[in-house]
Amino acid sequence: MTGVVMEKSCLYIVVPCYNEQEVLRDTANVLARFLSDNSDLLSERSRVLFVDDGSRDKTWSIISALCGESRRFEGLRLSHNRGHQNALWAGMDTVKEKCDCLITIDADLQDDVNAMRAFIEKFQAGVDIVYGVRKKRDTDSAFKRLTAEGFYKVMAFLGAETVYNHADYRLLSKRAVQELMRYDEVNLYLRGMVPLLGFHSEKVYYERGRRMAGESKYPLKKMLALAFQGATSFSVKPIRFLWKLGLAIMLLSLIGGVLDLLLPGFDPGFTAFSVWCACGLILSALGLVGEYVGKVYEEVKRRPRYSVMEYLQSDDAPKG
Ligand code: UDP
Ligand code: MG
């Protein structure tokens, strides 16, 4: 070292919480310890922001108690449950002016907290986006692993640029967050949006652990919804595939029709079947087109992504 003193960074750790009363206190302890253990890199003003995504259990009362106990903690309470992606957005939007960089991490700390030090080191070396990437998925059930890995492959096939095995554990520099907040879409799919920013990015690999307590807030239904969101927000391939399929079926039936005329006694016998099949196809095609139209409908309304009910922060908190 040449005696240059690296300026310490003001970090915000943004934690979305939905019915997380079982894990919240432990999570808060671990994150507060992380901030103090890494005070060589982090400024005093660094904070943990818990975003309560309309929980129905004691999550908010625990968050407000935590805010009373330490100035390290802040709490943002959304007026109702808007889902993980919107909760993350609300948190990032709230701190975008106050921090030098932020890290988003799930409340159950399945993602290895210790990887955050490497995130910050990379940030201080000039990287704007650091993706946390899971090395293995031994701790997830075989089903979760299969569906999750299948998901990344389908997304890649559809042409949406996503980082394989990276969920929403990432660091964003202040300017990356500010750029991200300029994206106006209300159908959020952060994993697809962040790579669009184009800033210098790097990956940090870590082992994924088990959920500390409580159960997954991402049942299959929500996971499928997110996958569908990703596919339809980031790709028009499904819709493009439809006309190719329609064309292929039309050509096949034309060939069948010609053969029927030319070859006496040629009767493949699927007239009834093919009519039903074509009906089904038309209906599902219409439905898919409808999904895209529905998306346009939601986008043009421009409804706010979240509404804040309360924001707790210490008096000496960084001001935005
Ligand atoms: N979450 C949220 N709103 C929701 C569902 C989940 O804020 O509607 C949060 C949840 O509290 C957790 C994170 O999103 O911090 C990821 O959820 P979970 O750990 O249950 O998902 P999994 O790891 O099973 O995919
Ligand atoms: Mg989890």
Q: How would you portray this structure in words?
A:
There is one protein chain. With about 325 residues, the chain is an alpha/beta fold. It folds into 2 domains: about 10-235 and about 305-310, Spore Coat Polysaccharide Biosynthesis Protein SpsA, Chain A, CATH 3.90.550; about 235-300. Helix content is about 45%, strand content about 15%. An 8-stranded mixed β-sheet has the order 7-5-6-4-1-2-3-8, with helices on both faces. Helix 2 links the parallel strand 2 and strand 3 (about 75-80). Helix 5 packs parallel to helix 8 and helix 9 runs antiparallel to helix 10. The mean pLDDT is about 90. The structure holds uridine-5'-diphosphate (UDP) and magnesium ion. Uridine-5'-diphosphate binds near residues 53, 106, 107 and 108.
Write the layout of secondary structure elements.
Layout: E1 11-17, H1 24-37, E2 47-52, H2 59-69, E3 73-78, H3 84-95, E4 101-104, H4 115-124, E5 129-134, H5 142-158, E6 166-173, H6 174-180, H7 190-193, E7 201-206, H8 220-234, H9 237-262, H10 271-301, E8 308-312
Parallel strand pairs: 1-2, 1-4, 2-3, 5-7
Antiparallel strand pairs: 3-8, 4-6, 5-6
Helix pairs in contact: 5-8, 9-10
